[in-house]
Amino acid sequence: MAFSLSSACLSIALADKCGTLRLVERASRFGDTFIAISDEFGMIEVANDMAEANERVERLRQRAA
After folding, report:
1. SS3 for 65?
2. What's the total number of domains in the chain?
3. Is 1 contained in some domain?
4. Burial label, 12 (beta-carbon count in 10 A; 0-12, 13-18, 19+)
5. Contact between residue 3 and residue 39 where contact means Cβ atoms under 8 Å apart
6. What pLDDT shows up at residue 45?
7. Structural domain of residue 37, as residue ranges?
8. What span, in angstroms and rounded, lies between the C-alpha atoms of 25 and 46?
9. Mean pLDDT over all residues of the chain?
10. Residue 21 lies in a domain
11. 51 and 45 in contact (C-beta within 8 Å)?
């Protein structure tokens, strides 16, 4: 079965596997917050909230299984 991954998907999956994945709540310039999905090199992508960030990581874990 073939499937494709974006570079962001691959980066998140590799960081998760290597144990360097971080989900950090940060303040936006508009006074709200967002979740930075990062690894040891910096931010990979953002999510609106922690539930969305956790869901993103979990979906990638399921695809890799």
Report:
1. coil
2. 1
3. no
4. buried
5. no
6. 97
7. 7-64
8. 10
9. 93
10. yes
11. no
> Distance (Å, rounded) from C-alpha 52 to C-alpha 40?
21
Residue 2 pLDDT grade (very low, low, confident, very high; cuts 50, 70, 90): low
CA dihedral 16, 18, 19, 20 (to 10 degrees): -80
Q: Say if 54 falls within a structural domain.
A: yes
pLDDT at 58 over 90: yes
Q: Residues 60, 9: contact at Cβ < 8 Å?
A: yes
Domain presence at residue 2: no
3-state SS record for 1-59 = CCCCCCHHHHHHHHHHHHCCCEEEEEECCCCCEEEEEEECCEEEEEECCHHHHHHHHHH
- pLDDT of 1 above 60: no
